[in-house]
């Protein structure tokens, strides 16, 4: 079986899936949309989104009850939130900052992302940020279906920028290293017209997101439960275990940064592993379909272009099932990442992760009936 390097995280794995499927796709009659074409580029004008939040609205957990993932909703900017006429006057701590939307990738607090900068508008963003001495900008996610901007994001602090234009023949301008410093709530886009014509980068009005002042509960038991659930789910993921060991990571769900590190491992590394497993399973089943037909018709070699419409239809149906599973996985990961950024307490984040881990354990058990009973224990 093919093994993939762990560096292939969630976005890279989606691209790899398209490349792998392209081996089979050309032999199918009729055009079918590729999964990787669904998520729109950051700069595309958004479709008319459903209003899910008013500007300035913030989310608080309802009391001290457990947070159930399905009962929470991701906050996206409404059309009003992308209207320059909407005022954020009077909102405490509001600051105007550049915005760099980065798809569906989750960036945990205190992590150190490296970006390659090549688009002209983002070359300009870095030039302006460095020239001003501010060195901070906002990064937020985009809805993969509607291209709406998420209402919550993070602050990237630029640590180091290297101009590599000469080495890359101008294809890449900068290699930039950053530190994810804090969370912010975006109240409005100041220049929404630049999102449609792609001539400039966006600027937003945003304010800091802080945990509630009364979030002082001792949560050692819940932290231990979340850590144990995570460890049980990833214990057979050799590449992930190797990375944890190589980096000397102490996996835990502590308030002092451990939870954000654990969230990053789950949302980026583990999700990439899941996608690669789906890729391998899909290719294996497609191969079985072709081999079964070749065996039944006494064919020594397998040429997908020679397969009849019935076989192509079977492959199409299989692809639609895998597409649905991938969309479910990506959607859940995006939602969980945004809910973590929206959260207002360590306890809320622990409950979000526990719910996600329990759901994943049930899906894993469904794929392995012998472990189904164990999934309901505890």
Structure report:
- By secondary structure, the chain is of the alpha+beta class.
- The protein folds into two domains: 10-37 and 217-375, no CATH class; 69-208, LON domain-like (Archaeosine Trna-guanine Transglycosylase, Chain: A, domain 4).
- The chain has nine helices and six strands.
- The protein has helices at residues 10-24, 120-132, 193-197, 220-234, 238-246, 258-296, 309-342, 346-367, 372-375, and strands at 95-101, 114-117, 136-142, 149-163, 174-189, 202-208.
- A hairpin with a 6-residue loop joins strand 3 (136-142) and strand 4.
- The model is unreliable at 1-8, 14-65, 85-90 and 371-378 (pLDDT under 50).
Task: Tell me the strand order in the biggest sheet.
Answer: 1-3-4-5-6
Biggest sheet architecture = 5 strands, mixed, barrel
Query: Strand-residue fraction?
Result: 5-15%
For the secondary structure, the number of strands is 6
Integer tally of domains? 2
**Rg value:** 23 Å
- The residue fraction in helices comes out at 40-55%
**Order of H and E elements:** HEEHEEEHEHHHHHH
Instruction: Briefly note the structural class of the backbone.
Output: alpha+beta
Count of alpha/pi helices: 9
Q: What is the residue-averaged pLDDT?
A: 77
Low-confidence residue ranges? 1-8, 14-65, 85-90, 371-378
Shape assignment: globular
How is this structure best summarized?
With 378 residues, the protein is an alpha+beta fold. It contains nine helices and six strands, in the order H-E-E-H-E-E-E-H-E-H-H-H-H-H-H.
């Amino acid at each position: 079986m093919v093994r993939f390097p762990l560096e292939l995280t969630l976005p890279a794995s989606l691209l790899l899936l398209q490349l792998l499927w392209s081996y089979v796709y050309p032999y199918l009659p009729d055009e079918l949309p590729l999964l990787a074409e669904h998520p729109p580029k950051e700069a595309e004008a958004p479709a008319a989104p459903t209003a899910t939040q008013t500007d300035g609205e913030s989310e608080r957990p309802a009391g001290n009850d457990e947070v159930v993932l399905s009962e929470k909703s991701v906050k996206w900017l409404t059309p009003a939130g992308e209207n320059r006429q909407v005022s954020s006057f009077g909102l405490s701590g509001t600051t105007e900052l550049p915005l760099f939307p980065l798809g569906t990738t989750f960036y945990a607090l205190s992590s150190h992302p490296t970006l390659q900068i090549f688009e002209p508008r983002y070359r300009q963003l870095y030039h302006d940020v460095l020239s001003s001495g501010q060195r901070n900008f906002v990064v937020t996610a985009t809805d993969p279906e509607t291209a709406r901007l998420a209402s919550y994001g993070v602050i990237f602090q630029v640590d180091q920028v290297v101009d590599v234009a000469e080495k890359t023949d101008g294809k890449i301008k900068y290699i930039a290293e950053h530190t994810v410093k804090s969370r912010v709530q975006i109240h409005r886009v100041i220049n929404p017209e630049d999102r449609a014509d792609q001539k400039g980068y966006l600027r937003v009005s945003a304010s800091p997101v802080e945990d509630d002042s009364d979030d002082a509960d001792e949560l050692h038991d819940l932290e231990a439960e979340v850590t144990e659930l995570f460890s049980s789910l990833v214990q057979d993921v050799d590449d992930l275990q190797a990375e944890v060991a190589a980096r000397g990571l102490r996996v835990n769900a502590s308030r002092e940064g451990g939870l954000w590190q654990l969230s990053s491992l789950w949302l980026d590394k583990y999700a990439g592993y899941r996608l690669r497993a789906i890729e391998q399973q899909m290719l294996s089943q497609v191969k079985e379909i072709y081999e079964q037909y070749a065996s039944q018709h006494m064919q020594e070699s397998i040429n997908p272009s020679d397969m009849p419409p019935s076989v192509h239809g079977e492959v199409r149906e299989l692809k639609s099932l895998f597409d649905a599973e991938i969309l479910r996985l990506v959607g859940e990961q995006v939602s969980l990442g945004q809910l973590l950024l929206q959260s207002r307490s360590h306890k809320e984040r622990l409950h979000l992760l526990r719910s996600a881990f329990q759901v994943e354990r049930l899906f894993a058990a469904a794929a392995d009936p012998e472990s189904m009973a164990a999934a309901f224990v505890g």
